[in-house]
Task: structure prediction
Amino acid sequence: MRKTRKIFTIILFIVLLSGCEADNSNKKKDKAESKGIRIVPTTVALTMTLDKLDLPIVGKPTSYKKLPDRYKNVPEVGQPMEPSVEAVKKVNPTHVLSVSTIKDEMKPFYKQLNMKGYFYDYDSLDGMEKSITELGKQFNREKKAKELNHHLNSVKANIESKVAKQKKHPKVLILMGIPGSYLVATDKSYIGDLVKIAGGENVIQDHSKQYISSNTEHLVNVNP
Result:
């Protein structure tokens, strides 16, 4: 049990994109800023990524999670799925970033802003790595993006080497609470992908969607 917990603890570091130390380049005038690029990430994951890429932002998502100290004084623009059009307009952005998981929900938001939507794939670790590469090219941070992906791959390889020695794989049920109900996560979700990497076996084998509805009787029968 302790070994399993240790592996999942390491996985959490991947989720938080930790371990990549920022250099002192943020003390200099930022290239993105000097080119008039004003970025607003609307999710915590994107905000954490931009920090690791050493990029300034002019707006940040409203969240109970601790965001990087460098963004302490950056104004909030609202919840990830319900950002405030007024708050975003107020910071005069050139790029407002979101994730492909909520692309359909965000279309009306971008329409009100009269701006192009930028969506990045954070549905799996592989998707996140490709998005990091894309962000690096988009905002002239290719070297930083390469370093971050190298770090993530190193952590992943370390975890997979430990998983290969496991004789038992825990049967895992992933619940996501929503108002008045809950959904279960499949391997197609980001957290489902992390569970698989960490050596867990998802008891929900539906691969058609990231999240699906279920009933208590079925969840009891799959015996997580």
Summary: The chain has two domains: 2-158, 171-221. The first strand starts at residue 39 and ends at 41. The two ends are 15 Å apart (CA to CA). Strands lie at 39-41, 78-79, 82-83, 95-99, 118-120, 171-172, 175-178, 181-185, 201-202, 211-212.
